[in-house]
Amino acid sequence: MTEEQRTIANNISRIRERITESALRAGRSAENIALIAITKYADLAQTRLVALAGLKNLGESRPQVLWEKSSALKDDAIRWHLVGHLQRNKVAKTIMSARLIHSVDSIRLLEAIETESNKVNKITDILLEINISGDEDKHGFSPECLKETIEITSNLKHIRVHGFMAMASREGGRKKAQSDFAAVRELRDKLSENLPKNITLNELSLGMSGDLEEAILEGATMIRIGRALFENV
Ligand SMILES: *Cc1c(COP(=O)(O)O)cnc(C)c1O
Predict the structure, then answer these.
(1) pTM of this prediction?
(2) Which CATH architecture is the domain 3-230 placed in?
(3) pLDDT per position as a tens digit, 42-92
(4) How far is CA 155 from CA 93, 117, 147, 159, 209, in A?
């Protein structure tokens, strides 16, 4: 084992401990919380080490990087997640390489995903990104327009919605993060009745290196971890 591999392995165990501890506090099973390794800080070789260390859910924030890494890493067990903004001219390629798109943030993007998925006769799995903090530099649907978005999506037969993704406010620390995540969970609970066939809201992609505990307490089923994974690498 190289020094780099040892550091990554140590980081992973520390993250796993944090997950286990928070799950325990929340009265949840850690098995129901998927760790998505965000590899945007890592080059290809380091990304490969993360997969070799056993993390098979990998995420990128830039579509082109996701395409490049997914075609370079020939590991069929890897599932790629797009967590950053997707432009419509990148949809066709992205739906072929991403297993789940967390960052669907507009009706126009939903329609582009429908069109491209229809062309290749596939169903694309997505999350709807919610701008829960209202921070202006963040993407995502505002909470008020989610009901209408769900109605529109019910007619898009090549899209399956599995839940919501959100990021905590930039300001306000962990306490504010927890209330942001709670607001996402409450929205989910409120909107969960009478959903159309192609929509379930079981997945909540919440929480990053600095606030994964709060996310797990509020019901995250996926956490997206970058910095904590590559610390000291
Ligand atoms: C970078 C990024 C993460 C990971 O954040 P860290 O603080 O590095 O753990 C999670 N989600 C999104 C959308 C990101 O862009």
Answers:
(1) 0.98
(2) Alpha-Beta Barrel (3.20)
(3) 999 999 999 999 999 999 999 999 999 999 998 999 999 999 999 999 999
(4) 23, 14, 14, 9, 36
Residue 104 pairs in a beta bridge with 128
Identify the residue whose C-alpha is closest to ligand 1 atom 7.
Answer: 209
From the alpha carbon of 40, which atom of ligand 1 is closest? 1
Q: Report domain extents, the chain.
A: 3-230
pLDDT of residue 140: 98
Does the pLDDT value for residue 184 go beyond 90?
yes
Confidence category of residue 223, pLDDT binned at 50, 70, 90: very high
Mutating to test ligand 1, I would choose from 224, 230, 231 the residue with most ligand atoms within 8 A of its C-beta, which is: 224
Around ligand 1, the residues with Cβ closer than 6 Å are: 38, 40, 61, 83-84, 208-210, 224-228
Distances (CA, A) of 92 to 70, 113, 114, 119, 187: 15, 8, 10, 9, 30
Rounded Cα distance, 63 and 229, in Å: 21
CA distances from 233 to 9, 50, 56 (A): 11, 11, 19
Q: Which helix (H) or strand (E) holds 221?
A: none
Q: What atom in ligand 1 is closest to the CA of residue 228?
A: 9
Q: Residue 48's pLDDT is what?
A: 97
